[in-house]
Design brief:
By secondary structure, this protein is of the alpha/beta class. It has two domains: 145 residues, Nucleotidyltransferase, domain 5 (2-Layer Sandwich); 188 residues, ATPase, nucleotide binding domain (Nucleotidyltransferase, domain 5), CATH 3.30.420.40. Helices cover 39% and strands 19% of the residues. The chain has 15 helices and 14 strands. A hairpin with a 6-residue loop joins strand 3 and strand 4. Pathway: Metabolic intermediate biosynthesis; acetyl-CoA biosynthesis; acetyl-CoA from acetate: step 1/2. Its EC number is 2.7.2.1.
Length: 401
């Protein structure tokens, strides 16, 4: 089976062609600057060099047309005809309370996605554009939606409700939804396999650390809590997002700085976090380059790791213990300093790093805990696209029965 995985953003379309039966990627790429001058398609067929094409790409439909064109090309393609694409799997950020798993996309499903736009106004509209474009360009090909929020639908009410009037939850759906669910699900499953134990026996804390960052408490294979909330703004400090703060702060800032709600949203999502504190960059690599010489870069790093440490401790308490901690995402996989600082002084929980293994520049899945550590510390590269492809194959295979 060949699955085209699409992740449509506001001005980009990331894609990957996967054979889920062999769990093998055939090609991947991204179309950037959709609707702007200088749009670029960057494409790489597995085992070959990256190629870049530029053109006038006005909308998501045209972007996916470009993608299909290069997938069919003689030099860089991996299929000879569009009919070889058996299904399309779409990343969808928000599925509300309705979707607790991946689903075949129908008109009813799309209507529910549109109802979730209020919860994810920056993400669900482009997700829907990608779905509509794929449906037009690949008529009759099954389309599957895989939701970032679905994995966290196992959270109990006491974990996902806020201390607000209950009527606001019933009327407006105000609750914790959580995000990065596909990643948390993938790496927790991989952790269980690495440990050679059923996930139903394990308590795992997964830390997805990139420009967006979240932690999750996964008890016996199910998410029972996660740091992101009603939106991806809550929780850990991130590249440009503030993470947790006293809600009265923003009311005070709006009053003092005469900000509109849109201004405040931009401040919290685009100008806070690492970039806001350091004044240097939202990129952890640049922060770490100046960690020893720039006081504000060090401060930003210390806030990031301190908050992560607090969540690890909180989730160990919430689960009554922890068997493994997993680091994933660009920062989680590559920053030994983040891992070291976030786990420092947690020996009382049975967590002990092997500092030599932690500092090694090796790639791929690895155990970086000391031999005597009571808690395994693992680095596991995430593969959300594979999860989307696998779910898509499972749903489409059921249609054929």
């Amino acid at each position: 089976m060949i699955v085209l995985v699409i992740n449509a953003g506001s001005s980009s379309v990331k894609y990957q062609v996967i054979d889920p039966e062999e769990q093998r990627s055939l090609a991947r790429g991204v179309v950037e600057r959709i609707g702007m001058s200088g749009a670029i398609l960057t494409h790489r067929k597995e085992g070959e060099k990256e190629v870049r094409l530029s053109g006038e790409i006005l909308d998501h439909k045209m972007a996916i047309e470009y993608v299909l064109g290069i997938l069919l090309s003689k030099n860089h393609g991996v299929i000879k005809d569009k009919s070889e694409i058996d299904a399309v799997g779409h990343r969808v950020v928000h599925g509300g309370e309705v979707f607790s798993g991946s689903v075949l996309i129908t008109e009813e499903v799309m209507a529910e996605m549109r109802r979730c736009i209020d919860y994810a106004p920056l993400h669900n509209p482009p997700n829907l554009k990608g779905i509509n474009a794929a449906m037009q360009l690949l008529p009759g090909v099954p389309q599957v939606g895989v939701f970032d929020t679905a994995f966290h639908q196992t959270m109990p009410k006491h974990a996902y409700l806020y201390g607000l009037p209950y009527a606001l939850y019933k009327k407006h759906g105000i609750r914790r939804y959580g995000f990065h669910g596909t990643s948390h699900r993938f790496v927790s499953d991989r952790a269980a396999k690495m440990l050679g134990r059923p996930k139903e026996e394990l308590r795992i804390i997964t830390c997805h650390l990139g420009n967006g960052a979240s932690a999750a408490a996964i008890k016996y294979g199910k998410s029972i809590d996660t740091s992101m909330g009603f939106t991806p703004l809550e929780g850990l400090m991130m590249g440009t997002r503030s993470g947790d703060l006293d809600p009265a702060i923003i009311l005070q800032i709006m009053h003092k700085e005469e900000l509109t709600p849109n201004d405040a949203t931009t401040l919290l999502n685009k100008h806070s976090g690492l970039i806001g504190v350091s004044g240097l960059s939202s990129d952890m690599r640049e922060i770490e380059e100046e960690y020893e010489t720039n006081a504000r870069a060090k401060l930003a790093h210390d806030i990031f790791t301190y908050r992560l440490k607090k969540y690890i401790g909180a989730y160990a308490a919430a689960m009554g213990g922890v068997d493994a901690i997993v680091f994933t995402g660009g920062i989680g996989e590559n920053s030994s300093l983040v891992r070291k600082n976030a786990l420092s002084e947690l020996e009382f929980l049975g967590i002990k790093l092997d500092h030599h293994k932690n500092e090694e520049k090796s790639k791929g899945e690895r155990d970086i805990s000391a031999a005597e550590s009571g808690v395994k510390v693992l680095v596991i590269p995430t593969n959300e696209e594979l999860v989307i492809a696998m779910d898509t194959m499972q749903i489409v295979s059921q249609l054929k029965k």
